[in-house]
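Annotated sample (chain length 150).
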Amino acid sequence: MVGLPPPLLQRRVFVDSSAYLALLDADDPDHRESVEILTRLAEQRYRLYTSNIILIEAHALILSTLGIAAAGRFLRGIAGSRTVVVRVRVSDEERARQILFQYADKDFLFRRCLRLTRGTRWLPVSPHIGREGREAIRAGWSKRRETGEG
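Output written by the structure step:
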């Protein structure tokens, strides 16, 4: 028996640059799985979120991997989509730098620290779709299938 998808307020996903590249690059090892996840999210009417920083990073990845035309199509596609682009504020950047400097012995990525600053300003978006998030999404779907919720 197929259950209902999660409530609308819980159907939000943050999409990372690695997911965008995997979606567009048929040679990416995560391509097929990424397409399957995006298809399922669309079927269940999930709202996709990303940030302007992620778009900049994704454009660079797509440009260097797939070329100018694909990178342009990507940006036009995002502009014409319903994906919500969260703008990073100066205060977010300042807090991310504080995190980096506080943990100077760690090799944190600046963009990861920016994500940590989301706090109350960014919507509580979960799960994260990127290399790290695919396993969480699969586990969540498996659990809902076992309990008859999805």
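Annotation: Strands lie at 12-15, 47-51, 84-86, 128-129.
Annotation: Helices lie at 17-24, 31-43, 52-66, 68-79, 90-102, 110-116, 133-147.
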